[in-house]
């Protein structure tokens, strides 16, 4: 079943250049959570993207510029407290015109000012969108925002984020994983990727995938940020959004399994999942 989705990823052609493999914009990171921005951006590059840019509040730009080598940065306007301001929305929208896909949310925090920026981005970003983490926390109960969005969108909540999104508790979410994912996808027109053990992916057309790769060693901070980067990378490489999410979730789990074999489930960390991606690609026949 996954094979038919993997086959959609193009073998890299001799006659090609970085522009052929997708430009990814990663709006992520805030004071205290620069690691999330690093992990999502680095994972997108390792999954094959041609160019990746991390947009951060400008006071964090020097930190990100030191962390990254291959990933570029976009320094955004900020308020005195270091949160993104209204002007930053314009800056992101302008930059996104050159991009094939955007990630919004990892490590952005939950400040009121940041929430307003995120809601504007959901409304106005015209690239496909991977909305993760604090991108989802910004819109508690506001699923109707997606009905108005004309561009391809995937949300990647863990059970806690899903609970906030639909205003239920985590127990309810875990007891109704498939039904919730299917219902949101079908009523709002977006792809839903409900993470956790046996991640569920649902499409607006009623397709459903339940993942069986991955392991409990992946229950460690930052592995979800890695997944957002991988999914965005595949969307940017031009495959349809549902397949991009299915392949992303599958390969992320395989990478997690390789990392667990190497480092053990206790010691593996999110960066190890990125390090294992090359072997996961090989295992899936993608090289
Ligand atoms: N290095 C960095 O910069 C890092 C930055 N990060 C960034 O931190 C931000 C906050 O993200 P976060 O996930 O840590 O906190 P939050 O949204 O409050 O969720 C916790 C709640 O959800 C629940 N829950 C979760 N999974 C569950 C499951 N499978 N099954 C069941 N329940 C589950 C959990 O339940 P509990 O622990 O109470 O059992 C709790 O209620 C975000 O922007 C992220 O990108 C992180 O990625 C780490 C590395
Ligand atoms: N027990 C598990 N089995 C399989 N996959 C898991 C398990 N625990 C966590 N994962 C995966 O690890 C990732 C964790 O993401 P998330 O909870 O968003 O973490 P973070 O916010 O720290 O990045 C998800 O992709 C999830 O499916």
TrEMBL record:
Its EC number is 4.2.1.136. The keyword DNA-binding does not apply. The keyword Ribonucleoprotein does not apply. Transmembrane segments: none annotated. It comes from the Bacteria. GO terms for biological process: metabolite repair; nicotinamide nucleotide metabolic process. Residues 1-284 form the YjeF C-terminal domain. Pfam families: Carb_kinase. It catalyses: (6S)-NADPHX + ADP = AMP + phosphate + NADPH + H(+); (6S)-NADHX + ADP = AMP + phosphate + NADH + H(+). Keywords: ATP-binding, Kinase, Lyase, NAD, NADP, Nucleotide-binding, Transferase. One of its GO terms (molecular function) is kinase activity. InterPro entries: Carbohydrate_kinase_pred_CS (IPR017953), CARKD (IPR000631), Ribokinase-like (IPR029056). Its cofactor is Mg(2+). (6S)-NADPHX binds at residues 36, 107, 158, 225. AMP binds at residues 195-199, 224. Homotetramer. Belongs to the NnrD/CARKD family. Catalyzes the dehydration of the S-form of NAD(P)HX at the expense of ADP, which is converted to AMP. Together with NAD(P)HX epimerase, which catalyzes the epimerization of the S- and R-forms, the enzyme allows the repair of both epimers of NAD(P)HX, a damaged form of NAD(P)H that is a result of enzymatic or heat-dependent hydration. This is ADP-dependent (S)-NAD(P)H-hydrate dehydratase. It comes from Candidatus Omnitrophus magneticus. The lineage of its organism: Bacteria, Pseudomonadati, Candidatus Omnitrophota, Candidatus Omnitrophus.
